[in-house]
Amino acid sequence: MKIQTQKTARGFTLIELMIxxxxxxxxxxxxxxxxxxxxxxxxxxAARDAMFATLSLARNTAVTxxxxxxxxxxxxxxxxxDDLWWHNGWIVFEDKNRDGHRDADETIIETVQAQPGMTIxxxxxxxxxxxxxxxxxxxxxATFTFCEKLTARNAGTIVVxxxxxARQTNPTAGQDxxxxxxxxxx
Length: 186
What we know:
Number of strands: 8
Strand content: 15-25%
Distance between the termini: 83 Å
Helix content: 25-40%
Shape: elongated
Number of helices: 2
């Protein structure tokens, strides 16, 4: 005896498809703000990591070459800007004549391009950092404050001591406010 089975149609109905699209749209609407925060957090972390790596490189190079190494803001990646804003990029160079400014015969060790979406400011008293051959950085502590240009999220600071050591910390309310509100390029 043969039993006949009826073939059933496979696929989605229009109503099932519409319900699936509505659920997907709701999930996307809920997740996009979190994704934007994740992207901004990654940019902020990348900018701090780039500066931290630069400071370590400059200190190690000063000790290795037994000469002064300068880190300064530079929008053209060739000369130092006399400015407290670092988000347009910075350079590291060997300062042979020890004047704190790069001359044509002084070797550029590293250039770092602009940091998009970030505002980076340093202490008003320290427009550039000089590392001596013993790894120290004379002067007052230098504080780099990192903040997003449009929001107050993901702020952070890097503090360089007179001993030349850099450490990451959270910014004070005053540092964060100065970074966000006083930037002429934001």
